[in-house]
Amino acid sequence: MDNRFATAFVIACVLSLISTIYMAASIGTDFWYEYRSPVQENSSDLNKSIWTDFVSDEADEKTYNDALFRFNGTMGLWRRCITIPQNTYWYSPPERTESFDVVTKCMSFTLNDQFMEKFVDPGNHNSGIDLLRTYLWRCQFLLPFVSLGLMCFGAVIGLCACICRSLYPTIATGILHLLAGLCTLGSVSCYVAGIELLHQKLELPENVSGEFGWSFCLACVSAPLQFMASALFIWAAHTNRKEYTLMKAYRVA
């Protein structure tokens, strides 16, 4: 094996490993989107009601999003979290000069939640099904796992190529990484579109802002790494095979 191809193969493997780690971290963390809102210090009846509804298994889309808006919520592919005061009062606490303790309460999305229909008017089951948001949500949930699976399958093929001491099977690895990159890019695009459509239907309250979090950024970085790894795998395998064929033809001649 030519040193050029071996170097390209090693670089592609490193890029593939980094992108796999980034993608796995992105899937497993809860910071795809973050809301910033004024901290609620007192435990009013309204706040208590929102907290109770948030941790309920029957919370609908509008219910948990209202809590995310009010209490510095974060959302991932699997979980949603809010930040609330650790010590709550039934009255407004006295004026303070020091920061107070807060705790994070999280609820996981069940499989039923992931595949549940989204409604035209969030929270209103009589408003009809919003097919676009429904399938965007399902794609943003499924595509990252498809991407991760394709990269793992590609890694198995790459390992077999090393055992066989041949670069040619890595063309399949490159193609799988290309498909994985497309899945990751599709997941990111679906997530952005879903968030924008949600905010068109549920406007953010005053003094509340939202931004994409670092989990989302990891997924965004993972996609170009997958594309670069794919290009190196395919280039190394194809060029090495071509040179081997030419050399064999020259020896025969």
From TrEMBL:
**Source superkingdom:** Eukaryota
Signal peptide region: none
The membrane topology noted for this protein in its Swiss-Prot or TrEMBL record is: Multi-pass membrane protein
Per UniProt, the keywords (alphabetical) are: Cell junction, Cell membrane, Glycoprotein, Membrane, Transmembrane, Transmembrane helix
Q: What are the GO cellular component annotations?
A: anchoring junction; apical plasma membrane
Q: Which Pfam families does the entry link to?
A: Claudin_2 (PF13903)
Give me the segments passing through the membrane. Answer: 6-27, 141-168, 174-195, 216-237
Compartment(s): Cell junction; Cell membrane
**Matching InterPro entries:** CLDN1, PMP22/EMP/MP20/Claudin
* Residue runs in coiled coils: none
Return the similarity comment. Belongs to the PMP-22/EMP/MP20 family.
Q: What does this protein do?
A: Plays a role in negatively regulating the permeability of cells to small molecules.
Q: By what name is this protein known?
A: Claudin domain-containing protein 1
